[in-house]
Write a structure and sequence with these properties.
The chain is α+β, with helices and mostly antiparallel strands. It is built from three helices and six strands. It has one domain: Nuclear Transport Factor 2, Chain: A (Roll), CATH 3.10.450.50.
């Protein structure tokens, strides 16, 4: 992993706003808006740190287009059956590690807490985002979002995006 390359406050603010809007859409159950944070051709993958670090490509979720993300939301709304719950995401340590031809390479830590219908909160997932962001668009969009989780296992209730 390379060191951060930019102290450009405007760039950082645009990226921070993208993350804030992204997690707000998920946390506020506006999942139909979630795919709009991605380019038409994109990559969204949730993968364990162990697999990622060993170069093993298998993740637990893999989508390579915005259309696949829309299908995921449709499945969540119509096909999946799970106990009602919600998330609260926290993103920190945002660093820009590269900027080339309007694309920023960004790393950030994330934490997702799941709250069940009784109000019980549990740490659901923790890890890092490793992203490529088209910063030359208004608003910026994710070209690639790798959700690399550090927890040893993932609860079978992974329904809502991280």
């Amino acid at each position: 992993m390379t060191a951060p390359i930019s102290d450009d406050q405007t760039l950082y603010f645009r990226i921070e706003r993208l993350y804030a809007r992204y997690i707000r859409a998920i946390d506020d159950d506006r999942l139909e808006a979630w795919p709009d944070f991605f380019a038409d051709t994109c990559l969204y993958k949730i993968i364990s740190a162990e697999n990622h670090d060993q170069g093993l490509p298998l993740g637990i979720i893999h989508a390579d287009s915005r259309a696949m993300l829309h299908d995921r939301v449709s499945s969540i709304r119509r096909a999946n059956i799970f106990e009602d719950h919600r998330y609260k995401h926290f993103v920190s340590g945002i660093e820009v590690h590269g900027l080339e031809a309007g694309v920023a390479t960004v790393v950030a830590n994330y934490q997702a807490i799941r709250i069940d219908i009784r109000g019980n909160a549990v740490l659901f997932s923790v890890g890092r985002y490793q992203d490529r962001i088209a910063i030359d668009r208004d608003p910026p969009v994710f070209l690639e979002k790798l959700v690399i989780f550090d927890n040893e296992r993932v609860d079978t209730l992974l329904a809502i995006p991280l």
